[in-house]
TrEMBL record:
<keyword id="KW-0131">Cell cycle</keyword>
<dbReference type="InterPro" id="IPR050487">
    <property type="entry name" value="FtsQ_DivIB"/>
</dbReference>
<keyword id="KW-0472">Membrane</keyword>
<dbReference type="InterPro" id="IPR005548">
    <property type="entry name" value="Cell_div_FtsQ/DivIB_C"/>
</dbReference>
<protein>
    <recommendedName>
        <fullName>Cell division protein DivIB</fullName>
    </recommendedName>
</protein>
<keyword id="KW-1003">Cell membrane</keyword>
<feature type="domain" description="POTRA">
    <location>
        <begin position="65"/>
        <end position="136"/>
    </location>
</feature>
<feature type="region of interest" description="Disordered">
    <location>
        <begin position="1"/>
        <end position="27"/>
    </location>
</feature>
<dbReference type="GO" id="GO:0032153">
    <property type="term" value="C:cell division site"/>
</dbReference>
<feature type="compositionally biased region" description="Basic and acidic residues">
    <location>
        <begin position="1"/>
        <end position="10"/>
    </location>
</feature>
<keyword id="KW-1133">Transmembrane helix</keyword>
<keyword id="KW-0132">Cell division</keyword>
<feature type="transmembrane region" description="Helical">
    <location>
        <begin position="43"/>
        <end position="61"/>
    </location>
</feature>
<dbReference type="Pfam" id="PF08478">
    <property type="entry name" value="POTRA_1"/>
</dbReference>
<dbReference type="InterPro" id="IPR013685">
    <property type="entry name" value="POTRA_FtsQ_type"/>
</dbReference>
<comment type="similarity">
    <text>Belongs to the FtsQ/DivIB family. DivIB subfamily.</text>
</comment>
<dbReference type="GO" id="GO:0005886">
    <property type="term" value="C:plasma membrane"/>
</dbReference>
């Protein structure tokens, strides 16, 4: 090779040419393995929902999905059957429906049975429903059609009559729309005095529409204004201790004692 040829080739005398080593290409992934994994994933995505749907459909079609028994706890004056009827549940009611809407069932019972202060509906076991309730306190009774009906602290009157009225609770008479108000007034009376009240009558005498008369178990009567009764009745034990015999304690205007006539 002539000098001219060497110059054209770019090579210099006495210098070895350098070679650049390119990295070998990476091996191709296993195509079959990738396809297999992808197929398995797709199969899982399709199969799992189908299995869940099939299981749910089978459960809903089986007797295990429906209510078998309803238990009521916490009642004393309200009949258990009244609570059960208010739930509107039957053996056709689905357990999942109760689980999802238990608060709605509880609200429905409270609306239907005003004697209940609170209601909780829970699923107990696979097919059993428990309804736990608390009632308003019984504060007295009223007579309707010759039968005694319990009056509760919220003013509600039970439809079912009471064969044996509870001792120590008064009988209310003559009250209509003002029944709830007088119940709240009587509830404020000290327990020691309240337990001695036999009857609370709306007498409305002397031109006073708020006049009430209390018949006491000790033989006395109290005439008072319902608007001031809870405040003034605290004087009753003191007045009773200062007099002899039975009579009427007038708390309507002032506070004084009128003995019974001996005639």
């Amino acid at each position: 090779m002539t000098t001219t040829d060497k110059e054209r080739s770019g090579a210099r005398p006495g210098v070895r040419p350098q070679y650049v080593h390119e990295p070998l290409p990476k091996p191709l992934p296993n195509v079959q393995h990738i396809r297999h994994r992808r197929n398995v994933r797709n199969l899982v995505i399709i199969t799992v929902p189908l299995l869940l749907i099939a299981a749910a459909s089978g459960y809903m079609a089986s007797p295990w999905s429906k209510v078998a028994d309803i238990t009521v706890k916490g009642t004393s004056v309200v009949a258990n059957q009244d609570v059960i009827d208010a739930t509107k549940m039957s053996k056709r009611t689905y357990i999942p429906q109760v689980l999802l809407h238990h608060a709605d069932f509880a609200d429905q019972v409270e609306r239907k049975v005003p004697a209940l202060k609170s209601v909780r509906v829970n699923v107990a076991g696979a097919q059993n429903v428990t309804v736990r309730v608390s009632e308003y306190a019984t504060v007295g009774y009223i007579t309707q059609n010759g039968a005694n009906h319990a009056v509760l602290s919220n003013g509600a009157v039970l439809k079912k009559s009471s064969a044996q009225p509870e001792q120590g609770l008064p009988l209310f008479s003559g009250f209509d729309n003002d029944l709830k108000n007088i119940i709240q007034v009587v509830a404020k009376i000290p327990a020691a005095i309240r337990q001695d009240i036999s009857e609370v009558d709306a007498t409305r005498g002397n031109g006073n529409p708020y006049q009430v008369t209390l018949v006491m178990n000790d033989g006395n009567t109290i005439v008072a204004d319902s608007r001031t009764l809870a405040k003034k009745i605290k004087y009753y034990p003191s007045i009773k201790g200062q007099v002899k015999g039975k009579g009427t304690v007038d708390l309507e205007v002032g506070a004084y004692f009128v003995p019974k006539s001996t005639k």
